[in-house]
Automatic annotation (TrEMBL):
<dbReference type="GO" id="GO:0000172">
    <property type="term" value="C:ribonuclease MRP complex"/>
</dbReference>
<comment type="similarity">
    <text>Belongs to the histone-like Alba family.</text>
</comment>
<feature type="region of interest" description="Disordered">
    <location>
        <begin position="174"/>
        <end position="205"/>
    </location>
</feature>
<dbReference type="InterPro" id="IPR051958">
    <property type="entry name" value="Alba-like_NAB"/>
</dbReference>
<dbReference type="InterPro" id="IPR002775">
    <property type="entry name" value="DNA/RNA-bd_Alba-like"/>
</dbReference>
<keyword id="KW-0539">Nucleus</keyword>
<feature type="compositionally biased region" description="Basic residues">
    <location>
        <begin position="185"/>
        <end position="205"/>
    </location>
</feature>
<dbReference type="GO" id="GO:0001682">
    <property type="term" value="P:tRNA 5'-leader removal"/>
</dbReference>
<dbReference type="InterPro" id="IPR036882">
    <property type="entry name" value="Alba-like_dom_sf"/>
</dbReference>
<dbReference type="GO" id="GO:0003723">
    <property type="term" value="F:RNA binding"/>
</dbReference>
<dbReference type="Pfam" id="PF01918">
    <property type="entry name" value="Alba"/>
</dbReference>
<protein>
    <submittedName>
        <fullName>Ribonuclease P/MRP 25 subunit-like</fullName>
    </submittedName>
</protein>
<feature type="domain" description="DNA/RNA-binding protein Alba-like">
    <location>
        <begin position="27"/>
        <end position="116"/>
    </location>
</feature>
<feature type="region of interest" description="Disordered">
    <location>
        <begin position="47"/>
        <end position="75"/>
    </location>
</feature>
<dbReference type="GO" id="GO:0005634">
    <property type="term" value="C:nucleus"/>
</dbReference>
Length: 205
């Protein structure tokens, strides 16, 4: 491919595997260059209500005149979807885990898919008689649904609330107890035995 240069890339995203979502469910598309801080700010603003912050904003705003109506606030969502392909999959998983730790009691369903990406390569020298190339690649993708309402526990990829908290607690207890081998933390094996060389066979006799 040293005689070609990439002209353009056309992504064909996969269809959302969750068909029974609410109409107002936000869909967060995570990319490789996305900042986790901005993604979490948007997700938590749609899922988490902060009464103290809302009161501060209301106090900072001027008092509306008589007869004027106050604009209604955006309602909180009961579900949210994180999706990513390629290198952004790890960031989508990180965002979902942080949201689960921030908001307790969320049900999760994870689906793995593939998305096709078309790459068009043009020859560096058109006069060389080379044709354009179209390369099709399949990139792994992930869809993560977080819901406040209970989901079908029989479907593949379902994770109950608090499941990871229990696993983390079990892992921490194993680490403190020395793991599965039963060796204590900080215990070192003694070096050398009683039959080593250089002990002085006839010393003191």
């Amino acid at each position: 491919m040293e005689n070609y240069s990439k002209a353009r890339t056309v992504e064909r995203p996969s269809v959302c595997p969750f068909t029974d979502l609410c109409p107002d469910t936000p869909e967060v598309r995570v990319k490789d260059g996305s900042k986790i801080r901005n993604l979490l700010r948007f997700a938590l603003s749609r899922m988490e209500g902060n009464p103290s912050r809302a009161e501060e904003e209301e106090e900072a705003q001027p008092t509306p005149e008589e007869g004027s109506q106050k604009p209604p606030g955006r309602p909180l969502c009961k579900q949210i979807v994180f999706t990513a392909i390629g290198k952004g999959v790890s960031k989508a998983i990180t965002c979902a885990e942080i949201v689960k730790r921030r908001l307790k009691g969320l049900h999760q369903v994870t689906k793995l898919t593939y998305s096709s990406v078309l790459e068009v390569w043009e020859p560096l020298e058109p006069s060389a008689g080379l044709d354009s190339l179209t390369v099709s690649r399949n990139l792994p993708g992930i869809w993560i649904l977080l819901s406040r309402e209970p989901l079908d526990s029989n479907q593949p990829g379902y994770q109950a609330p608090g499941r990871y908290d229990a696993l983390w607690a079990l892992s921490a207890s194993r680490d403190e107890g020395g793991g599965s081998t039963g060796q204590r933390t900080g215990h070192r094996r003694k070096r050398g035995g009683g039959g080593g060389r250089g002990r002085g066979k006839g010393i003191g006799r």
